Amino acid sequence: MVFSAIVVTSALKSAIGLMGTSLWLIPLLIAGLSYYRYDQLDPESRLIDKHPLYSDYDFIIIGGGSAGAVIASRLSEIPNWNVLLLEAGPDENEITDVPSLAAYLQLTTLDWKYKIEATDKACLAMKGGRCNWPRGKVIGGSSVFNYMLYVRGNKQDYDHWESLGNPGWGYNQVLYYFKKSEDNRNPYLQRSPYHATGGYLTVQESPWKTPLVVAFVQAGIELGYENRDINGEKQTGFMISQGTIRRGSRCSTAKAFLRSIRLRKNIHTAMNSHVTRIVIDPLTMRAIGVEFVRNGRRQIVRARKEVILSAGAINSPQILMLSGIGPKEHLQHVGIPVIKDLQVGENLQDHIGMGGLTFLIDKPVSIVQDRFQAAPILMHYVINGRGPMTTLGGVEGYAFVNTKYANHSIDYPDVQFHMAPASINSDAGVQVRKVLGLTDEVYNAVYRPINNRDTWTIMPLLLRPKSRGTIRLRSSNPFHHPIINANYFSDPMDIAILVEGAKLAIKVSEAKVFKQFGSKLHRIKLPGCKHLKFGTDAYWECHIRHISMTIYHPVGTAKMGPPTDPTAVVDPRLRVYGVAGLRVIDASIMPTICSGNTNAPVIMIGEKGADLIKQDWLSSSTINHEIKRELRKS
């Protein structure tokens, strides 16, 4: 999602290097955040970028993102273990802490800036027919510039994983790990058996909302859905968003899991360390170290026990293949010696949705950039941690709904709605169009005529796509971006479900509660769809294929499965088949994508993966004793 861009005032544009005349506000924002809020919210202070490193460690973790930060924190609870965390990017900064600035972090140095390959099936309104795939190149990974939405997925997802031959991954088992991380500060969830307090990861609602999100939830009730905790007993329903924020500030996994333990003697963090390959002994078929480039210098650090790959669903398969683990024919094609023939880079899945669905309103209650005055909003946020800058990237509500294709006999909705009190037009084309990569033709024809008008949007999202894509190496050069073929809509069922999702979204907009705002559908046709009658199924399919909206949830490229599954890369304990001392613990291991935003499930995978490592290397009594001792010290 990209709606955070629209809440930023002209002064804040300049705060991250955009054009404008208010350049003097750059130091004001940074100094203000530091002076008024930073020590208060983050008494642990910044992570230590360790120089020099030891020659060897017990565990080396590749990637300090949503999973890697969790694993590093949990493994370092065992004081006799030395842990090294390698991250390709730098540390967070004051700007990344501001929830509303999420979209402005895309296409910066904190982003890997990936793009998918062009096809004739999706992203047709984007420049070159290629959707952007931002991924976090920063400590904390994509949790540093995601939209902070805390969504766990559906119980059926995890029971399905277990049914595929992955014992221990059913819902009842993974719920423990969701709760282990959580410090939920929503008062109405305090007594819920599905939530917990006291964990590292803070979850709460944004302290600022528009009346549109209240209307959105009420509209769902009008349509027969319940206002419920979608992370609780049942998922189907409408809800005001919960997010990983802490007193108005982003709570990334780096902030949650690493800063609080930064002074532990047995954990080293090395930033700006680009991993080029895992060193594997071909005689013993064991991972024995990691090669990486830091500050222009190539280094190798050895692992006494394990190498843990947590670089995400794009970088993890890339690193595996660079290390000789992957499809035999592909590795031979790019000139990499084959160490283990596995289906790495297959099974790529992502949540794809419909962007640009816009509803015009006649009340000044949405987020329109030009309406916001820079200094008052900025200072209110800096001093009080409140106001529109605390919005979860602009996404105020979400819902899980059933199209005609869903199984209505069980709680397993097939479409998710993201609701935002703004649309592509709301920042007059300053940032949202750039993040999406929209062509000038599309923006000028459809959205420029309503620049800075009050609008709101619903983005229908396909929860369980049938289409599968691939990650492939572009070459044997570890600094070349991999080839990402998302393969959107290769299965016709995916587009059919999304068309129904679009029609349901319009029904929500037509609910009685929205009449108070004069809500009506923006009806200018997309240039590539002018030959079709507006509002027909054929038109909505054309719209979806043009403004195809990913919310950046790639998973599945190092699939978890039993030994009998020829497509599996890791076993149910996340160990790479045929290579000792090597695990993958991140979104790559998902056999099928979970039904909702993926950040919370990846944190859960990190928690469970860390426990699997402890179980394999320690007795249960040792685990309990060592962890309790370390937590008392912390």
Question: Can you characterise this structure?
Answer:
The chain is an alpha/beta fold. The chain folds into 2 domains: 1-41, no CATH class; 56-112 and 133-553 and 561-624, FAD/NAD(P)-binding domain, CATH 3.50.50. Helices cover 27% and strands 17% of the residues. It has 16 helices and 25 strands. The strands form 8 sheets. Strands 1, 2, 10, 11, 12, 13 and 25 form a 7-stranded mixed β-sheet that branches. It has a 6-stranded antiparallel β-sheet with strand order 7-18-19-20-17-23. Helix 9 (328-334) links the parallel strand 14 (325-326) and strand 15. Helix 13 (492-509) packs across helix 14 (537-546). The longest helix is centred in the last third of the chain and has 19 residues, at 599-617. Mean pLDDT is 92; it is low at 1-24.
| Coarse structural class | alpha/beta
The beta-strand count equals: 25
Instruction: State the helix count.
Output: 16
How does the major sheet shape up? Answer: 7 strands, mixed
Shape: globular
Quote the beta fraction.
Answer: 15-25%
Residue-averaged pLDDT, rounded? 92
- In CATH, the homologous superfamily of the largest domain goes by the name FAD/NAD(P)-binding domain
The CATH level-2 architecture of the largest domain is identified as: 3-Layer(bba) Sandwich
CATH-defined fold name of the largest domain = FAD/NAD(P)-binding domain
Give the radius of gyration: 23 Å
